[in-house]
Structures are given as structure tokens and as C-alpha cells.
Amino acid sequence: MNEQKKYMTRALELAALGCGKTSPNPMVGAVIVKDGKIVGEGWHQKAGTPHAEIHALTMAGPLACQADVYVTLEPCSHFGKTPPCADALIAAGVKNVFVAVCDPNPLVAGRGLAKLKAVGIKTEVGLLEAEAKKLNEIFFKNMQKNMPFVALKAAVSLDGKTATASGSSQWITGSAARARGHLLRHEYDAVLTGIGTVIADNPQLTVRLAGNWQQPTRVVFDEDFSIPLESKILDISLAPTLVYVANPNAEKEKLLAAKGVKLVLCPGPDGRVDVIKALKDMYERGICSVLVEAGGTLNASLLEAGLIDKTYVFMAAKLVGGKQAPGIFGGIGINKIDEAWLIKDLTLEKIEEDWLFAGYPYRG
């Protein structure tokens, strides 16, 4: 690995430390190098706080003058909750700025680089670009589509079953895989499920790991206000809850509102919750990413609408069997195998006795 890639790799490692903490902002890391040595490092630690470049510049102090800067995303050029990072780099007198990828945010989109170039700072874009885009895949989807990034998580047996025919599903995978699933909840702004899962499993859908973790908003699609009032997911002392319904029920609305649950009427033409409208509404509420933990009906609706950006499938070395035992997706399915969804950039990770398959579905 050449020196430039080494420093940008370090910047990406720093950026990843902000995972689950920076939404709606991207994860960004910065490294400042002077005379072949790292003199400053930083990462964006939380939305509304100083950006990566500011932390790195603070650490470097006067050594930043005439130094090289490696940053995973184009420095911002506008006043938001914090001042422009491009201005801070200029004031510090840096010599060269290496950027992994341009910022897709229309408020930046090349303006940060233009500011640097205008005062004679040399810039280079594209160093480890693919890695930087993947790190901030949520942010890029947000900026390009004005929609949340949607990931589906499921646990299955080796023969593809999510439960037995009687509905027993706890636990298909082992404790280490389940802990990874909790970590995923921390990384996403919201966890989405359907009313069938709430009634069958009564889940909390919270992060239950040792330590202080950011809790996601719990989102439920409940066409007819069927949610039991004693459901754990309605306890907003654990985490916020947002319920989308298709058919109004004034009495149930009052009861849920009294619990502090947010309700949104979002009917579709088929009498069910309109999934596209609901996702758009979530984004307007500041939910930038959604982790789906649902049953086959909702999973199929999202897949058939082309709304799933990523899949996380935990697979256990178990065989369940049973013609009536459910799989990840219900719905009508496809008629021909060449119509199947494909998975690109598939990764495989061993998690103790289980396996995690992660990738991105697309139509061939």
C-alpha cells in the first residue's frame, strides 16, 4: 500500500468510529500529515458537533501549516450547525487536500473543493472512492433519492426457514449473531416491523447490549389498529414509537396517543399501509435509515416494490423442515427463476456457530 492509500485508509477507519452516531450527517474521518508523520486526526463524532477536519486541525495546531490533509468526504463549504470546514483548512494554511469522494449534498457538491482551489490549495479526488461511498451508503441514498436507506435483517435455518410451522423462532441463531443484530439496530435510525410480528412475538426492538447505546425509533405498520395496548413496543420509555395505519379508529387513536405513541394515517389503494408514502414520511421526520425486522408479508411488499437497498441474513446450521414453515418472503413470488432478485457485492462472515450473508439486491 502506498503512503497516500495508507493515510486515507486511516481516515476511513476513523470515520467508521462515528457509526450510528452522526445521522443525518455522514461519517467522516480526517488525517493531517507533515513530513511523513501524522500530526492530526479526527472524526465526526455526533451530529451538531465539530466535523472531522476541525478535530484534526485542533490536534495538529500550527503543524497543519503546509501539511497534507486526507479526508474521506469533501470538506463542507456552507454554514450549517457548524462553520465551513473548507474555511478552517484555508485559515490553517494546509498545502494539499486529498478527498476520497465528492459530497453529494447539493449544498456542497464541489463547492468545498472550489473554495480550496481558489486560494491555491492543491486538491485530488478519488483516493479509495469506492470504500468511502460504501461507508456512507446511507448518506448517498438520502442525498440522491430523498428517501431513507432500507436494510432487511432476517435469521434463517440452513433450509431457509424463519420459524417452525407452529411459529416457534426463538432462537434460530446463537447469542453472538443476536448481539450483532442488536448492533445493527444501533446503526440505523429506525427499526420497522409489521403488526403480525408484534402480535406473534411482542418484541421490544431496542438495543439490548451492555453500555449506553442510541436507541432506534420503533416503527409499526398496522392497517387496522390491531396492536395490543400491552405491547412492549408501545412503551416509549424504552425508545420512541411511530405507528402507520391505513384505516382510522378514533377510540384507538386516543388510547395510543395517551401513551405518547405517534400515529400517521397512510392508506394505500389496497387498504394496507402505503409503504412508499410511509418511507417518504419517515424521511421528512428525519429518519435516514430503516432496518426491517418483519415477517414475510411486509418483507415481500418491500422487495416487490424495489425498496430494499441491503440485506443482512443470519444463517444457522440447523434444519427445520415443514411445508408450512415460513421463509423470509411471502407474497406471490416469481414465476421463473430468471426473474429472481440477485445479490451483488455479497459478503460472508462467520459469527461463532452462525454465518452472516450481507449484500445488495437488484433485478438482473
How is this fold's topology laid out?
Layout: H1 3-16, E1 29-34, E2 37-43, H2 52-60, E3 68-71, H3 85-92, E4 96-99, H4 111-118, E5 122-125, H5 129-135, H6 137-145, E6 149-156, H7 175-187, E7 190-194, H8 195-201, E8 217-221, E9 241-245, H9 250-258, E10 262-265, H10 275-284, E11 289-292, H11 296-304, E12 310-316, E13 341-351, E14 354-363
Parallel strand pairs: 3-4, 4-5, 6-11, 6-12, 7-8, 7-11, 8-9, 9-10
Antiparallel strand pairs: 1-2, 1-3, 12-14, 13-14
Helix pairs in contact: 3-4
Neighbour order of strands in the largest sheet? 10-9-8-7-11-6-12-14-13
User: C-alpha Rg, in Å?
Assistant: 23 Å
Low-confidence stretches: none
Secondary structure: helix percent: 25-40%
State which percent range the strand residues make up: 15-25%
Give the mean pLDDT.
93
Shape: globular
Quantity of strands, as a count: 14
Structural class: alpha/beta
- Span between N and C termini? 35 Å
What is the element string, with H for helices and E for strands? HEEHEHEHEHHEHEHEEHEHEHEEE
The major β-sheet equals: 9 strands, mixed
Total helical segments: 11
